[in-house]
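Run log // design_07
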């Protein structure tokens, strides 16, 4: 076919000249298109990759205060509402809470200490760990003294452990109130008196973990009758979970009524609560537990690359018995949630952007950068350092237990308490908040939430929120959430929680120790079982190591700790 020519000159097709221009145009178009393609996530838990974390948090949220922000194409949840749900009563408490109340009065069969205490029996104990681990030891020491019909010498606090706190009992707790309030239950003295005109050296021994009443009578009483003064060392969790009802109620009287902080600590703690209330009618207390030691102990990986592995690995070398498996630990729910994950969980539950949160924590791994995603979701974050002056904190700042006591008071007084691990502070506060009216207490169901966070990019916000609500059922501090006898007694004091039978609501003053006010029935727990010789700790060697104990499925950290590994146990104290 003959190609026609245009008039006015010879014409050639510019095929060769067009090829470079077209290639250049295609290259420019490809480069521009890449600008609109989001990079893939660098890890499943990118908390410590600060640049991506800030992009992620701010991309998820509309900081101008709008309802939500679309993020098509990103590997994140597509819509995160800023305001959560409207403030509803269920966010701050249970509708069923008025039907239950704390009841720790003794029965008529529980004799006065003047009738039971033997004059030549003295029990001394040395606590172990941080503030809250020591608290469990103090509570159980009172009960152990009652079992032995002995006079209890005011417990000696652990001053040489990981926490390096030199405080004694009277510098943290109101010692005079402790002695007087329990005077009808157990005789308590400030120091060991002379016996027969001379001061006797105590006989040192250690009892097994979860030692039962019979264990104390078989193991400790013979030595006490012979030596007259016994000193039990490393006294933490040395008493069985299940005891006779009157002994369980004695535990509650000690824990919830007799153990008060000193006036300076209590007054400062109440100031912190007041300052939180000035900022918001309701506030959340979050025990974040994202310190380097906790992350190292958990054995989990949070996406910080070689720097994280090196830093946490160096801390982890302290514990020879620790053999972490990051992926397995995460699947089993043993890893603390990241700050961003905590924020997403709370928003999904319905807490809005304007809620004020008190963060109870030590040194956060990664500092402000690690908190950035949480602050993007909840801008109103506070700590005791941000709402008080250095001068106000000066009497407490050099003592880890006193600083922990301030956090304890604020967490106890909060409208909603969130525990990001299941250590001693979380357990004690959970039990205390159940006893005093089932105040809202949230424990992340990390085992179920973990795969949800991994797949959050594949669902809408509504679907994500619905899943969070479903997975958190049974982890919100509702009455009867844990069956009686489940877990540690300090976490689930079911014997000391009564249910109303007359249909009337219970006031806050009904926890007072007045048996005439108890007009309900206690939540029953399984009968005290018959223990085997091994469970009773029967052994010829008084200082034999504790037997391997059965671990509750919910006691996440305990499953990783050897029975007598002190440093591993101390790390869980707070």
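design_07 sequence
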């Amino acid at each position: 076919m003959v190609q026609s020519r245009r008039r006015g000159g010879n014409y050639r097709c510019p095929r060769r000249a067009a090829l470079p221009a077209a290639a250049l145009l295609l290259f420019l178009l490809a480069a521009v298109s890449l600008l609109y393609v989001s990079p893939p996530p660098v890890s499943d838990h990118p908390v410590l990759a600060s640049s991506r974390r800030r992009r992620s948090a701010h991309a998820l949220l509309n900081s101008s205060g709008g309802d939500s922000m679309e993020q098509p194409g990103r590997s994140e949840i597509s819509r995160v509402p800023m305001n959560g749900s409207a403030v509803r009563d269920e966010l701050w408490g249970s509708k069923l809470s008025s039907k239950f109340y704390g009841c720790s009065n003794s029965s008529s069969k529980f004799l006065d200490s003047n009738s039971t205490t033997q004059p030549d029996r003295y029990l001394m104990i040395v606590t172990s760990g941080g503030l809250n681990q020591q608290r469990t030891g103090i509570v159980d020491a009172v009960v152990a003294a009652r079992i032995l019909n002995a006079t209890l010498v005011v417990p000696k606090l652990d001053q040489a452990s990981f926490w390096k706190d030199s405080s004694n009992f009277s510098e943290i707790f109101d010692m005079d109130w402790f002695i007087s309030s329990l005077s009808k239950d157990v005789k308590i003295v400030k120091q060991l008196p002379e016996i027969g005109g001379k001061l006797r050296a105590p006989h040192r021994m250690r009892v097994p973990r979860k030692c039962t009443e019979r264990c104390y009578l078989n193991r400790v009483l013979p030595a006490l009758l012979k030596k007259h003064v016994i000193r039990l060392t490393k006294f933490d969790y040395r008493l069985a979970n299940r005891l006779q009802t009157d002994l369980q109620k004695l535990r509650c009287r000690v824990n919830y009524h007799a153990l008060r902080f000193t006036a300076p600590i209590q007054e400062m703690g109440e100031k912190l609560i007041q300052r939180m209330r000035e900022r918001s009618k309701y506030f959340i207390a979050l025990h974040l537990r994202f310190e380097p030691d906790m992350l190292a102990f958990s054995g989990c990986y949070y996406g910080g690359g070689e720097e994280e592995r090196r830093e946490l690995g160096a801390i982890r070398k302290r514990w020879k018995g620790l053999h972490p498996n990051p992926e397995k630990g995460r699947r089993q729910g043993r890893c603390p949630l990241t700050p961003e994950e905590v924020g997403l969980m709370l928003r999904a539950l319905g807490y809005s952007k304007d809620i004020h949160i008190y963060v109870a924590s030590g040194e956060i791994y990664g500092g402000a950068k690690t908190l950035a995603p949480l602050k993007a979701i909840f801008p109103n974050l506070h700590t005791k350092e941000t709402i008080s002056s250095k001068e106000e904190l000066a009497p407490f700042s050099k003592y880890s237990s006193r600083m922990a006591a301030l956090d304890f008071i604020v967490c106890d007084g909060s409208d909603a308490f969130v525990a990001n691990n299941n250590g001693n502070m979380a357990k004690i506060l959970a039990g205390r908040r159940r006893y005093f009216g089932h105040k809202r207490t949230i424990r992340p169901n990390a085992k179920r939430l973990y795969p949800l966070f991994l797949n959050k990019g594949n669902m809408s916000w509504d679907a994500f929120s619905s899943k969070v609500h479903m997975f958190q059922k049974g982890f919100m501090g509702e009455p009867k959430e844990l069956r009686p006898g489940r877990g540690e007694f300090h976490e689930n004091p079911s014997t000391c929680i009564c249910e109303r039978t007359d249909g009337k609501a219970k006031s806050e003053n009904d926890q007072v120790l007045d048996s005439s006010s108890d007009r309900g029935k206690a939540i029953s727990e399984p009968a005290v079982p018959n223990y085997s010789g091994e469970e009773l700790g029967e052994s010829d060697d008084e200082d034999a190591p504790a037997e391997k104990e059965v671990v509750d499925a919910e006691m996440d950290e305990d499953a990783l700790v050897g029975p007598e590994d002190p440093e591993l146990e101390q790390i869980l104290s707070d």
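The longest strand covers residues 283-287.
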